[in-house]
Design a protein that fits this description.
Elements (H helix, E strand, L loop, with lengths): L8 H10 L1 H5 L5 E5 L4 H17 L4 E6 L2 H7 L9 E5 L14 E4 L6 H6 L1 H21 L4 E5 L31 H18 L4 E7 L1 E3 L10 H10 L4 E3 L6 E6 H14 L5 E4 L4 E3 H10 L7 E3 L11 E2 L4 H7 L7 H13 L2
Parallel strand pairs: 1-2, 1-4, 2-3, 4-5, 5-6, 6-10, 7-9, 8-12, 9-13
Antiparallel strand pairs: 9-11
Helix pairs in contact: 1-3, 1-9, 3-9, 6-7, 8-10
Length: about 350
């Protein structure tokens, strides 16, 4: 959910200045957004509103939310935004807003492990049926382009011998395993997107995000980076739940927002793009980098090694397709991304 502290305008302006011509494609657009109250949604929503203000684009945004009152309580500075309109509803059954829309960004979902464990059936239907509902709306409202934000989880476990996962990797999670409900549902939703794209009536692009750091990220979820930042701000030792050997690469949230906009507007219809960082670090190395962002440096508590000599678990994307086809790049290095995020949360 939103923090009441808004994303700094300097960060949003960096996004605009990185590719000024990108935003001109949105002039006079009418945008429909799902998942606007989440971490990704916050950056998407605030970046487009900032572009509208700075560039006079005359964009209007309709965002689907579960509860408008709670949305504005957590983001009071958006309550006076006259180009933003909220509609309430369940992603699986919402009433279609009237009129035509130029673009649709579908973010609504949850990767929270607790939600998956408590109601896996509900999570599956929210992802799959919700995606189907939004695609149905996109067809009805004659949307020109549609962005589905999927997940790197669609690839299933990354083989130890595969350094980075490319988009054409054909691995997948075990669909008979209840713990794979999130990744399987995302995969099924991608199939729906492919079917709609094949009709030629909607140009659907797919983003497959991996791991991220930035203002608004969850600090109390099952994501190590957020937990480490939470521990550090509290002045506590940074606690690694496992043995610290898994490998990750992180993309800063400002880069994430730019990448998603670029995939929506310039991505090849029917094509998927990995979204993630380039610096590969172990969870242990990430914890040490976070610890060194504080003065004095914080101590680290690491769990016992349990892999019995097996190669470390990996979750690393190959982002060369986005780099080569869309001209995207990682602008913010990991240490700076952590410092910016810690500074933002420290001002709460």
């Amino acid at each position: 959910m939103y923090s009441t502290l808004r994303i700094p305008q300097t960060e949003l302006d960096e996004i605009l200045l990185t590719d000024p011509n990108l935003w001109k494609k949105l002039r006079r657009a009418r945008l429909f957004l799902t998942g606007g109250s989440g971490f990704f949604g916050r950056w998407i929503l605030e970046s487009i509103l900032r572009a509208n203000d700075c560039m006079g684009l005359n964009i209007s945004v309709v965002a689907l939310v579960r509860n408008a009152k709670k949305f504005f309580q957590s983001a009071p500075y958006l309550s006076s935004c006259d180009v933003l309109r909220l509609v309430e509803g369940d992603i699986r059954s919402f009433d279609f807003p009237e009129g035509e829309f130029s673009y649709i960004v579908h973010l609504a979902t949850s990767s929270d492990a607790a939600i998956q464990a408590a109601d896996p059936f509900g999570l599956f239907t929210v992802i799959v049926n919700g995606t189907g509902r939004v695609l149905e709306f996109a067809n009805k409202c004659k949307a020109r382009r549609f962005l589905f934000v999927s997940s790197g989880a669609v690839y299933g476990p990354q083989p130890a011998e595969l350094t980075k996962i490319p988009e054409d990797y054909r691995g997948a999670a075990d669909c008979t395993n209840p713990q794979s409900v999130y990744s399987t549902a995302k995969r099924a939703s991608e199939q729906l997107c492919g079917l709609y794209n094949s009709t030629g009536r909607i140009a659907v692009s797919i983003a497959r995000p991996f791991a991220f750091i930035g203002p608004g990220m969850p600090l109390n979820g099952h994501f190590a980076a957020g937990n480490f930042i939470r521990d550090g701000i509290a002045g506590a030792p940074i606690k690694i739940t496992g043995d610290g050997t898994p490998l990750r690469s992180y993309l800063y949230s400002a880069d994430l927002a730019l990448w998603l906009w670029k995939i929506l507007l310039d991505g090849t219809p029917g094509r998927a793009y990995n979204v993630g960082g380039k610096e590969i670090v172990s969870i242990q190395e990430l914890a040490q980098t976070v610890a060194n962002c504080f003065s004095p440096s914080l101590s680290i508590i690491t769990g016992q090694r349990t892999d019995h000599g097996n190669p470390p678990e990996r979750y690393i994307p190959d982002i060369s397709r986005a780099e080569k086809e869309l001209g995207l790049s990682v602008r913010i290095p990991l240490k700076e991304a952590l410092q910016r995020t810690i500074s933002w949360y420290s001002n709460q």
